[in-house]
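Re: weekly structure request thread

Next one in the queue (236 aa):
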Amino acid sequence: MTELLFRDDAYVRSCLARVTAADGHGIRLDRTVFYPMGGGQPGDSGVLRLVSGETIAIADTVKGGDGLDDIIHIPAAGSALPSPGAELIAEIDWDRRHRLMRMHTCLHLLCAVVPGAVTGGQVADGRGRLDFDVPGSSLDKEVIAARLNQLIAAAHPVAPRWISDDDLAAQPELVRTMSVKPPTGSGLVRLMEIAGVDLQPCGGTHVASTAEIGLVVVSKIENKGRQNRRVILAFA
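Done, posted below.
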């Protein structure tokens, strides 16, 4: 399995690694800073820099079929594959990752601002959205944007912590998403806490302070069903 460096420190941009497998599915490493697509957040892109000086562009990162720690780095079309055992430096596209971290964290704030269960969501580069099981008349674009920007400016600390499967089962209110359930069975579940604002299970990458998010706007609120409303955010 792959050692997931991003899980403990989302600000690590590169690492030394060794190729454990490379085939038509992609490249596996013994350790990585690349976040795999999941929880509504896209997988990282970047490069692998071999000792020989050769570089391999990584177009996407996904989870394999052998558990949460099985990470596959997808090379750009036409790239040559490295040999198993080869040593390299794995380096993410940091500017893109940081934008995703900022928006992912902002969506956690949106959970705190809008009441109701989350029925879906997606993080994208420079924008993001959450779907809520709420009446449409209860949502106001300007009110939501103003509250979000207040929370952002307040510079609330953001940090992960862990609880046991049993503790999560005893606190079902921590799970806000109806469509995605946090992985259990390993004994521990990762929570993301925005101090004094939000606490919920999440395996994604986030900024360390809400102040890093920057100003946001609510670009649209869409009707997606009888009580399903989509709130779409973008950086101002």
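The chain has a mean pLDDT of 93. The radius of gyration is 19 Å.
Next request, please.
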